[in-house]
Amino acid sequence: MNRENVLKSLKFNFATSIFALIIAVAAFETGYLTKGALAMNLAHEDLYYIEVSAVMLTIAIIPFALKGFSRAMKKGADLDGIAFLKLYSKKSLLRMFLLFIAIVVNIFVYYGIEYNGALYCAIISFGALLYSYPTGKVLDEYQNGNETK
What we know:
Helices cover about 80% and strands about 0% of the residues. The chain has six helices and no strands.
């Protein structure tokens, strides 16, 4: 496991998650999946609970994913090269996965019950995912013990 392989793997996973999100949006926009299908089958109070849950999920996941990654990297700064690369890879995948889940849930809530707040939450989560793009500069800064931004 070397630095280039870790970054290449993380960038592939990042691109795959972006591609999966595009497919999910395209499935609704092309009519393959029906917009508003959940709204037709649920009571108004159930819709309210889904709306609040989507927003609360976003509020919980974004700070947890971003701050949890930074905290883990600070704790692992004294590890040797291979152990640090494994930690960086594992925590980066976890961060991308959590943000991906927040985006997917909000996309399905937005299209499923046509709740505009979920669209905004998905956009914010997507911004956090873009912020999490794995670069060599960030890896070097965490490996050298410097905190980024």
